[in-house]
Design brief:
Helix content is about 50%, strand content about 10%. By secondary structure, the protein is of the alpha/beta class. Strands 2-3-1-4-5 form a five-stranded parallel sheet, sandwiched between helices. Helix 1 (about 20-30) packs across helix 8 (about 155-165) and helix 6 (about 110-115) packs across helix 7. The longest helix has 19 residues, at about 130-145. The two termini are about 25 Å apart.
């Protein structure tokens, strides 16, 4: 099965650029985009930060897992910007075996700066760096387990996008 026959899933910790990369890949591959944050907002009428505050983090993570599972199963294949939490769910990791997975990897110190910029992001405490430092050692080996390609998300965005396009077999230079 080629990349063209499989869902393309973009994973990484919060702030890694999943929405940006997935949006570009959806455009380049001429596929629908399924972005966890956007789709959950449309479905529930509130952003993920408010969902987590209102219904709890566990409920948010269940919806994020359902979103990923539905996206991977969708035909024709789509591009999914998946919530980072999904990698901790065994059935999500199993479903990713049928997808082409790009992991946007960067150090928590890099991501914490970006993380603070989005009010729509769930608030799991007052210190984004502390949160990311807790999540990184748990999720890193799981991302590595499911990733077909690892991209350095700390590189300039144009470079990350070019490498992502090349990974899925489209012109790295873009239009």
């Amino acid at each position: 099965m080629t990349v063209r026959d499989r869902a393309v899933v973009v994973l990484g910790l919060m702030g890694s650029g999943k929405s940006t990369v997935a949006s570009e890949l959806a455009r380049a591959l001429d596929r629908p985009l399924r972005d966890s944050d956007t789709d959950l907002l449309r479905e529930h009428g509130i952003d993920t930060a408010t969902l987590a505050d209102r219904d709890g983090v566990d409920a948010l993570h269940r919806w994020e897992a359902e979103h990923l599972l539905a996206g991977v199963a969708e035909r024709p294949a789509v591009v999914v910007a998946a919530a980072a939490s999904t990698v901790e769910v065994p059935r999500c990791r199993a479903a990713l075996a049928d997808a082409f997975v790009l992991w946007l990897d960067a150090a928590p110190e890099v991501l914490a700066v970006r993380f603070g910029a989005g009010d729509y992001r769930p608030r799991f405490g007052s210190d984004p760096l502390e949160l990311l430092r807790r999540q990184d050692p748990v999720r890193r080996p799981l991302f590595a387990q499911v990733a077909d390609v690892v991209l350095d998300a700390s590189a300039p965005v144009e470079e990350v996008l070019a490498r992502a396009r090349a990974a899925v077999g489209v012109d790295p230079a873009g239009p």
